[in-house]
Structures are given as C-alpha cells and as structure tokens.
C-alpha cells in the first residue's frame, strides 16, 4: 500500500499543493479586471458628497497613524534667521545611517555662498570661514572642525562640548544654541 501511495497519489497531491501556493501569491486580489469599489455604509446613510466618500475610502484603505510627537504648526513652520556674518553657528548633529555623511559633505562642498568653504584635495576637513574673516567659522561639523566633540557625539554631548570647542578654536560663537 505504501509503494502505491508514493508512486501514484503523492505526486498529484504535491503538485496540487504547489499550485495552490503559487496561485495565492500570483493571482490578483480580486477576480476580474478591477475590484468593485463600494462606498462605506456610513456615507450611503448620510448621503455625503463625493469628496466625503473619497476621504472615507482613503481612511478605510490607509489607517491613520497617531502622531508620536505632536508638534504645533507654529513650531514646524517657524523661520529662524541665520546671520553668517555675525556670531551664529550651525551645529550639525550627525545621526548614523541617516545619510548624514552625504548631507555633511554637501554642507561644505555644494552650497553656493558668498564665501564658500575651502576644501583641499585629499583632505576631509574644509575651512568654512565667515565672509570677511579668516579664523571664525559658521559651521560646526565633522567636515569643518573634525570630530571635536568625539565620534558621533549626540545632542547632550554637543550641547556641553560645542561652546568650549569653539573657544579652543578662537571663535567667539553665539552662546545661544538652537
């Protein structure tokens, strides 16, 4: 009985199982060319307009994500004036695996400024001096000052380290850190 089962019945069963699995992954989600779209029951009862129905359909398809950090619109849209000629300093917080290296390079090499950063061939650090100055820098980053506060310094380390590092470099720097 085992030999007959293995020879005649097992291959068709395995083939059928294989076809069911393939069909599950290859077949369209709905039969036919397109899935029929039904308005939600709540919209049909209210008799809402097409815009309301469209919003409800989108909400049904994509669940809303709760805001983890609900920032006020005023905070997100605020304008901060940066005075490159004054004492303001941009402190670049490098977060690993977020494209920070590429962005940091763009800050020193590709921004069109009145006085662009001076980068020597073969060196990673560039001199980003303020317009009209030779010593004071407007950018505190790995590509302008090096790892002055340590490798991948976080916010806490930078907050306590940047003023002292700027003093060591002979830069007056703005004492108000943003």
Structural descriptors:
about 180 residues, mainly alpha, two-stranded parallel sheet, two-stranded antiparallel sheet, 6 helices, disordered C terminus, Heparan_SO4-6-sulfoTrfase
Structural class estimated from helices and strands: mainly alpha
Tally of DSSP helical segments: 6
H and E string:
HHHHEHEEEH
Binned strand content: under 5%
Strand order of the largest sheet: 1-4
Radius of gyration computed on alpha carbons: 31 Å
Average predicted confidence as pLDDT: 78
Unreliable spans: 174-178
Shape: elongated
Q: Multimeric state of these chains?
A: single chain
Q: What separation lies between the terminal Cα atoms?
A: 81 Å
Q: How many strand segments?
A: 4
* Percent in helix: 40-55%
Largest sheet: 2 strands, parallel
Can you put this structure into words, describing what you see?
The protein has 178 residues and is mainly α. The chain has a domain at 84-170. Helices cover 40% and strands 4% of the residues. The protein contains 6 helices and 4 strands. The strands form 2 sheets. The protein has a two-stranded parallel ribbon. The chain has a two-stranded antiparallel sheet with strand order 2-3. Strand 2 (118-119) and strand 3 (126-127) form a beta hairpin. The longest helix has 25 residues, at 2-26. The radius of gyration is 31 Å and the shape is elongated. Residues 174-178 have low confidence and may be disordered.
């Amino acid at each position: 009985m085992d030999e007959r089962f293995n020879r005649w019945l097992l291959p068709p069963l395995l083939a059928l199982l294989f076809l069911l699995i393939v069909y599950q992954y290859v077949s369209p989600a709905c039969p036919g060319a397109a899935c029929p779209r039904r308005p939600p029951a709540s919209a049909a009862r209210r008799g809402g307009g097409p815009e309301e129905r469209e919003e409800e359909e989108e909400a049904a398809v994509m669940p809303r994500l709760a805001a983890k950090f609900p920032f006020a619109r005023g905070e997100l849209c605020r304008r901060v004036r940066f005075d490159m000629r004054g004492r303001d300093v941009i402190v670049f917080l490098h977060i690993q695996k977020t494209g920070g290296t590429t962005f940091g390079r763009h800050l020193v090499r590709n921004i069109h400024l009145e006085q662009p950063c001076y980068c020597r061939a073969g060196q990673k650090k560039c001199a980003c001096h303020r317009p009209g100055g030779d010593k004071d820098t407007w950018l505190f980053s790995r590509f302008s000052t090096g790892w002055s506060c340590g490798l991948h310094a976080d916010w806490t380390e930078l907050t306590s380290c940047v003023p002292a590092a700027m003093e060591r470099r002979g830069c007056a720097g703005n004492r108000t850190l943003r």
